[in-house]
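pasting for ref
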Amino acid sequence: MEMLQTVFSYSFAARALIVGVLVSLCAALLGVSLVLKRYSMLGDGLSHVAFGSAAIALALGVAPLKISIPVVIIAAFLMLRTGGKIKGDAATAIVSSSALAIGVIVATMTTGMNTDISNYMFGSILAMSREDVFITSAAASVIIIIYIVFYNKIFASTFDEGFALATGVHVELYNSLLAVLTAVVVVIGMRMMGALLISSVMIFPALSAMRVCRHYKGVIMMSALISVAAFIVGMLLSFLYDMPAGASVVVVNLVIFLIFSAIGKKNA
């Protein structure tokens, strides 16, 4: 506790804590549905699109969030709705790899692979401004409220789309809502974790929780707890050992997943 108080007494660390906890909660809540619906690669694909759009925004001298949020939302719809011969993971691979390639080319030919580009690729939560914190906190709060309000509908469309349709749930609408919320989380979390790592924060806590919990609500609560705890521990490790914050959080999530997997096998 003493170490926590010392670390988070700094204003930049306090901002990082606020943003990190909110984004971790959002990622954990949405991650459970993504895993159960086999949309796990959606977050990874959207993170590449987010990087590409951020690179273009920086090249144009525009705030990345203003371009990234609408572009990533459109990409989410494309990945879910692409029909014909290109579906599912193939559509995700095409959109994500193309966006990443465009982002790298734009960055190289304009501003170069500078600190700003590196921060969006690998994350730099401690470099977040007050404006970044305000925007991220507001967006994360809205996502959490929307998730709570539509919890029952999301639950129904996650577990059994056929039954949900039969009971009058507009499944396509809630799949689209899930895609939009995921897109926003990816964009606001990109600054914290980096485009290459943000999807892991959505998937690891959900997978870990599923190893020890058997009910949906229990998985949701455990996933949220794991996500927040992993973020705080990861942040402390990054302070103590001068490691990248995003990578530290992912490694902590990996360790938790391995521990929970062992516990799950023991109790099976």
